[in-house]
Design goal:
The chain has helices at residues 3-18, 35-39, 105-141, 146-178, 225-235; strands spanning 21-24, 29-32, 44-50, 52-56, 59-68, 71-74, 80-85, 92-93, 98-102, 181-183, 188-190, 200-201, 209-212, 217-224, 250-254, 265-270, 280-287, 299-305, 310-316, 320-323, 326-332, 338-342, 344-349, 352-357, 364-368, 379-383. With 389 residues, the chain is α+β, with helices and mostly antiparallel strands.
Length: 389
């Protein structure tokens, strides 16, 4: 072969084997790698786990606020100088325990005066009765006209009414005297005492103290229309079942420090309408609050559990990632390629998390080697254990 032809053939072979096709644009150079070279890259080994399902006691979470069943601002019902404060700040009291005493002397004097008035009215009535009986006897003898009897009977009626009025006045005076002793209307714990001995107090003055019943305690929380339907579907119940003692689900609390309250509560109230301004409906759960860990006004994490286990899809927590669009996992397709899959997650269960939407049972998700792969690449999947094992 002539030297020139041999050299041309050698150059053509080298260009085919060693040089990629060059595309020269305006100030840029793009190198197109042949598809065969891409396919020649080795598959990345990754550890995968299969999405599985198992029956779980389902639960829904809400933010609630503690509300005392009984809470009252103690106000005086009569006016006077505060004579004694009989309780200390923050004390626990029983029903009927004395809290305050208003100076009673003026009210005792009023009682004494009303008693005297009653005694005078009773004496007038006795005299009127005697006069009426005497006039009736004279009428039977024919020595007095009927008109005198009628007057005597009317005078007796007036005297009887005066007695009743005096008795009512006495009862009012005795009530006012009793109101000088202020007692706890129910058992609970009081707050800070707001008034001091010697203060002039009355029905129009500021409250003396606040009393709260701490056991049991209720927690109010609101559900949107969608959440309400979801809870009813999970519980397989209707609205009236939520407050039925035999059917109502257990309600659990997480305290502000994150610890779960040992006691379980029960739903005792559900409102009869959805608030049109917020689109929510209010429920209340009642807790024994034996250790008084639920404090009136505190915000708490409320959880409602289903009565029976519900079949749920689970995926290892290690497989989950998150970006601006939301939660996603890298799924290995049947042909061994990586697919980015956005999902809707539910609650955590150990080291796994519930998948509400976006995956099917048996699909493979990458749990190790996430940093070495990207969507579309070929991988070699090695099956690992479940997330909870």
């Amino acid at each position: 072969m002539p030297p020139i032809r041999r050299a041309a053939r050698t150059f053509a072979t080298a260009a085919t084997v060693l040089m990629p096709i060059l595309y020269i644009g305006a100030g840029s150079l793009t190198v197109a790698v042949p598809a065969a070279a891409q396919q020649a890259q080795p598959a990345v080994a990754v550890a995968v786990a299969a999405v599985w399902s198992e029956p779980l006691i389902d639960e829904s979470r809400f933010i609630g606020q503690a509300r005392a069943i009984d809470e009252v601002q103690i106000l005086p019902r009569v006016s006077g100088f505060l004579e004694a404060v009989l309780v200390r700040d923050g004390a626990e009291v029983a029903e009927g325990d004395p809290l305050f005493r208003i100076e009673p002397h003026a009210y005792q004097a009023a009682v004494d005066a009303r008693k005297a008035e009653l005694a005078g009215a009773q004496a007038n009535l006795d005299l009127a009765i005697i006069e009426r009986e005497r006039r009736e006897e004279l009428l039977r003898r024919g020595t007095t006209p009927q008109r005198e009897v009628d007057i005597a009977r009317a005078n007796e009626a007036v005297a009887s009414a005066a007695v009743e009025g005096a008795r009512a006045a006495l009862r009012t005076a005795e009530l006012n005297l009793g109101y000088t002793q202020i007692a706890a209307p129910f058992p609970g714990r009081i707050g800070a005492v707001a008034r001091s001995v010697g203060d002039l107090v009355g029905p129009g003055s500021a409250p003396l103290v606040r009393l709260v019943r701490e056991r049991p305690m209720r927690v109010a929380f609101s559900l949107s229309e969608r959440q309400l339907i979801r809870v009813l579907e999970v519980l397989k119940a209707d609205v009236t079942d939520l407050t039925d003692p035999a059917l109502t689900p257990e309600v659990f609390l997480n305290l502000p420090n994150g610890r779960q309250l040992d006691e379980a509560g029960r739903v005792v109230f559900i409102d009869n309408r959805i608030d049109p301004t917020t689109g929510t409906i209010t429920l209340m759960a009642e807790f024994p609050n034996a250790d008084r860990l639920i404090v009136d006004g505190a915000f708490l994490d409320v959880r409602i559990r289903s009565l029976e286990p519900v079949e749920r899809l689970l995926v290892p927590q290690a497989a989950m990632q998150r970006d601006q669009r939301g939660d996603f996992a890298l799924v290995v397709t049947p042909d061994g390629r990586v697919e980015q899959r956005y999902v809707t997650l539910g609650r955590q269960n150990g080291t796994a998390v519930v998948v509400e939407d976006g995956m099917r049972e048996g699909e493979l998700v990458i749990v190790e080697g996430l940093q070495r792969v990207r969507p579309g690449v070929q991988v070699e999947a090695v099956l690992a254990g479940r997330g909870e094992e």
